[in-house]
Amino acid sequence: MTTALVCHMNILLADGSTAESTRVSGKPTKLMLGDASLSPAFEAHISHLNEGDSHRFNLAAKDAFGEVNPDAIHHLDRSRFPADMALEVGVIVSFAGPGGSEIPGIIREIAGDSVTVDLNHPLAGHELTFELEVLQVL
Length: 138
What we know:
This protein is mainly beta.
């Protein structure tokens, strides 16, 4: 059986800075329990929460967005990008994935005609603190 938690969530980096916050957009997130979309460690922290609960917890990188996978870092020739695309370090570019999905990648380095693109989740490799406020249990 799956349960959904509708909540506001802040994700904090180890230095205390905010990496992501649903409060900024004003749009809460929906977290699905029991469908394997969340890591077992993440789900264990939130499975007991009820409407109105607030919870703060830390997760190691492997239990949050995973470790950095070196196989997800690609060196591509500049010619693989549109000629009019401004390529700069830190820019997020989108690639076609399976079934018409889009896979975001971050440009990490540009050396001559070689462009290094990192397809890892931007928060991969980071120990993170999660702050949740449960608005609704579905």
